[in-house]
């Protein structure tokens, strides 16, 4: 069978998209179709003519064809349906067709049909890891509809590529070819390599293809670089006691490339349950991850003292467990992330802590007698570049409390680490624990020391851990090099 013309390939894709749309419950019903059409008009920025009469398929053909004439018109079409149906079977079927349209444009005039059976024969392999490797970590995660190597190839074909760099889709084909060779199918692998050679010749990328290195991908060593789940609560500035919950997933061991998840709007009492669900979903997504995972909560003033590390996992079971059992948990300051004027001293003290830990030391805040004491605390912290950890004299509470004002002094001075007792910083057992924690040379393992104390409390079990100081230790540890981007709710 000869190669299909570009126009025929595109027509077949249009027909496949129409077929999928006709199977949609929203599109097949008049009321749902009108909602979808209205959303699509908004996405396109142009009106979509309504269906007149009862001939649905010709109308859908017209709509799809008109979308192909707009830059990302097909993506607008599916996104509009996704707003109504979320991840329905129709939406999951449509997204790979949109990716295929973009891949056909990218590789024109080549016919991609011959690659599909080869890529769909690629068996048990870590597709997200291959996509990260092929894209040089620019693609951190794959959408849910990328379930085969063929679908990943199509997805990567739409990724932007710097000049003179091998496109991620071609790098991915190279990795798949290597996998096929290891699987004992060199003849099949050669079909992918031949396609890559032909495309490299057309694109002037022979040198880039020759330089592509992939041998280290096949048997990667487990990374010691942690993965991070950043969970942020941002207060709604209009509705009291409501928050925007945002999150970012970071699992790239070669650099900081956080992937933003969905933002949801919740009441205060819904936050623990939403976090529990989010962690469950992230664990399912990271089922094959070979790295340790750290939880970081980015909290506003009013939630800074919330014991998030003791929120539950599997709360619907007879024996739920606190997050502290499974993860290192630290809190971070939302106000500092959003206030760029505080960032220069923050970077400076962080470098001091990380680069010269042996020369760094904590600063103990003493109970304040008047407002001047807070000014003196801020002055002392700013004048001492080696003071990188602040031990609070009170937990951060209401606006006028000493703990809250001590935290403010620390944030203004750029102090990256703060420790406190969640209810009573004058507790002798807290004072003793902090002295032991801070004995570590240069504060180099502050986070590990706090987790050890929490572990000692966990050993006592739910009936007794409240009496152990490890149950009440809070640590703010703020790394300015790990910023979620962009901050704030969508």
Could you explain the architecture of this structure?
There is one protein chain. With 490 residues, this protein is of the alpha/beta class. It folds into 3 domains: 6-97; 112-217; 227-477, no CATH class. The protein contains 20 helices and 12 strands. Strand 9 (361-364), helix 17 (371-383) and strand 10 (387-391) form a beta-alpha-beta unit. Helix 10 (168-182) packs antiparallel against helix 11 (186-203). The radius of gyration is 27 Å and the shape is elongated.
Topology record:
Elements: H1 6-22, H2 25-28, H3 30-44, H4 56-68, H5 73-85, H6 89-107, H7 115-120, H8 127-134, H9 149-157, H10 168-182, H11 186-203, H12 206-211, E1 227-235, E2 242-250, E3 259-260, E4 264-267, H13 271-285, E5 293-299, E6 312-313, E7 321-322, H14 323-326, E8 329-333, H15 334-338, H16 343-355, E9 361-364, H17 371-383, E10 387-391, H18 402-413, E11 417-421, H19 428-437, H20 446-459, E12 473-477
Parallel strand pairs: 1-5, 5-8, 9-10, 10-11
Antiparallel strand pairs: 1-2, 2-3, 2-4, 6-7, 11-12
Helix pairs in contact: 1-4, 1-6, 3-5, 4-5, 5-6, 6-9, 8-10, 9-10, 10-11, 17-18
Features:
4-stranded mixed beta sheet; 12 strands; 490 residues; alpha/beta
Q: What is the approximate shape?
A: elongated
Total number of distinct structural domains: 3
How many helix segments? 20
Distance between the termini: 49 Å
**Unreliable segments of 5+ consecutive residues:** 214-220, 486-490
Multimeric status of the protein:
single chain
Category by helix and strand content: alpha/beta
What percentage of amino acids are in beta strands?
A: 5-15%
Secondary structure: number of strands: 12
């Amino acid at each position: 069978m000869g190669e299909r013309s570009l126009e025929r390939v595109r027509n077949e894709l249009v027909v496949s998209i129409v077929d999928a749309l006709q199977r949609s419950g929203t599109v097949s019903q008049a009321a749902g179709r009108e909602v979808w059409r209205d959303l699509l008009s908004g996405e396109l920025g142009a009106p979509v003519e309504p269906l007149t009469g009862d001939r649905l398929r010709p109308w859908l053909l017209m709509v799809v064809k008109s979308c192909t004439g707009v830059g990302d018109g097909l993506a607008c079409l599916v996104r509009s349906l996704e707003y109504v149906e979320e991840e329905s079977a129709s939406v999951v079927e449509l997204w790979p067709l949109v990716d295929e349209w973009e891949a056909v444009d990218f590789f024109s005039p080549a016919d991609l049909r011959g690659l599909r059976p080869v890529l769909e024969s690629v068996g048990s392999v870590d597709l997200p890891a291959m996509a990260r490797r092929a894209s040089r970590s620019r693609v951190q995660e794959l959408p849910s509809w990328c379930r085969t190597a063929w679908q990943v190839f199509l997805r990567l074909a739409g990724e932007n590529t710097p000049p003179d760099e091998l496109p991620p889709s071609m790098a991915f084909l190279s990795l798949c070819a290597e996998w096929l060779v290891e699987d004992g199918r060199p003849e099949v692998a050669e079909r992918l390599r031949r396609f890559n050679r032909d495309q490299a010749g057309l694109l002037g990328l022979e040198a880039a293809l020759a330089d592509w290195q992939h041998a280290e991908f096949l048997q990667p060593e487990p990374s010691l670089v942690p993965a991070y789940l950043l969970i942020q609560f941002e207060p709604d500035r209009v509705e009291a006691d409501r928050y925007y919950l945002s999150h970012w997933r970071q699992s790239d061991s070669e650099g900081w490339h956080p992937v933003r998840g969905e933002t949801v709007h919740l009441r205060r009492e819904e936050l623990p349950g939403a976090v529990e669900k989010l962690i469950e979903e992230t664990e399912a997504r990271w089922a094959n991850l070979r790295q340790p995972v750290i939880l970081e909560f980015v909290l506003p003033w009013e939630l800074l003292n919330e014991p998030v590390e003791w929120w539950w996992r599997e709360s619907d079971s007879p024996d739920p467990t606190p997050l502290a059992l499974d993860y290192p948990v630290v809190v971070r300051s939302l106000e500092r992330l959003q206030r760029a004027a505080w960032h220069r001293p923050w970077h400076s003290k962080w470098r001091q802590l990380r680069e010269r830990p042996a020369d760094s030391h904590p600063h103990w805040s003493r109970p304040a007698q008047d407002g001047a004491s807070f000014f003196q605390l801020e002055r002392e912290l700013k004048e001492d570049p080696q003071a990188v950890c602040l031990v609070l004299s009170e937990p951060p509470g209401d606006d006028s409390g000493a703990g809250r004002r001590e935290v403010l002094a620390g944030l203004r001075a750029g102090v990256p680490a703060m420790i406190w007792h969640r209810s009573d910083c004058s507790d002798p057992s807290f004072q003793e624990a902090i002295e032991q924690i801070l004995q570590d040379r240069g504060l180099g393992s502050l986070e590990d020391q706090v987790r050890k104390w929490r572990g000692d409390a966990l050993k006592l079990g739910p009936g007794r851990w409240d009496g152990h100081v490890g149950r009440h230790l809070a640590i703010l540890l703020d790394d300015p090099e790990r910023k979620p981007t962009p901050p704030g709710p969508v």
